[in-house]
Amino acid sequence: MTKALDRLVDLLDLEPIEVNLFRGVSPRDSRPRVFGGQVAGQALVAAGRTVEAGPRVHSLHAYFLRPGDPAVPIVYEVDRIRDGRSFTTRRVVAIQHGEAIFNLAASFHGDEPGFEHSAPMPDVPPPESLPTPAAPPGADDRPIDVRPVAGGSRAWIRADGDLPADDPLLHACVVAYASDLTLLDTTLSRHGLSIGDHPGVMLASLDHAMWFHRPFRADDWLLYDQESPAAAGARGLARGSIFTRSGGLVVSVVQEGLVRPLR
Q: Where residue 212 falls among pLDDT bands split at 50, 70, 90?
């Protein structure tokens, strides 16, 4: 495991402070606000820590309510809404300075046999043939290896190191973290722009939803196929499909974000 991935795993290892209460911290970096993927990953950890072994997360729906303060710990309060025979539901509120900054609903389900089908994976070059973009000068190492595919909003992603094989919740939380890295950028790419070369745009996640269809490993290569079907009113909608290298659709993602031109 690389140092960057080790730091991410530590970041997702929340401190239990009371029944249904957990505390998380943010990395010491130059971000002016907490990264949305971090809060989503930590909230999912908090939810999963209150679920008995067996059921896996199959969906989450979240809202980003206020910017998070990276200098202050985040308290995650879990509401055990339902423990059913087939489905387990949790609601999590992330709190800073006495106010909610984020809320998440997550549902967990045990494996069952049933019908199966999957959308086809796009035909793209293998990840080994693609370079990893260099980090900006002074930036920390990245816990997620992201290799963009030329000619569209697609990228191969994986954790930059090995993760424990017997912790499916950790793999889901790492992918939840990674899913917020590039998705909203697709709202700008539809207009031939990127946040890197067009800083006059404010981007901020408003909500985030994920559906986990099949088991996967976050430390294996996954293709993240992203698109933006609509933007209006200073908001943009983006959606993504995450495939294993063998072509199985394992995760679907939808996000709406603020895409505000600065005047």
A: very high
pLDDT at 139 over 60: no
Domains of the chain: 3-111+127-261 (2.40.160.210)
pLDDT greater at residue 136 or residue 251 = 251
CB within 8 Å of 165: residues ≥ 6 apart: 217
Q: Which two tokens stand for residue 145?
A: 């290896």
* CB-based contact 63:99 (threshold 8 Å): no
**Encoded amino acid at 41, one letter:** G
Residues 6+ apart with CB under 8 A from 174: 8, 12, 41, 143, 144, 159, 163, 218
Residue of 52, 44, 33 whose CA lies nearest to 11: 44
Burial of residue 49 (number of CB atoms within 10 Å: 0-12, 13-18, 19+): middle
Q: What would you measure as the largest C-alpha separation in the chain, in angstroms?
A: 54
Mean pLDDT of the chain: 93
Contact 89, 105 (CB under 8 A): yes
In the predicted structure, residue 259 carries a pLDDT above the cut 90? yes
Q: Are 24 and 74 in contact (CB under 8 A)?
A: yes
CA distances from 96 to 63, 65, 77, 83, 149 (A): 15, 11, 11, 28, 38
Active-site positions read 180, 205, 255
Can you read off the two tokens belonging to residue 129?
Answer: 């043939």
Interval 148-157: pLDDT, tens: 998 779 999 9
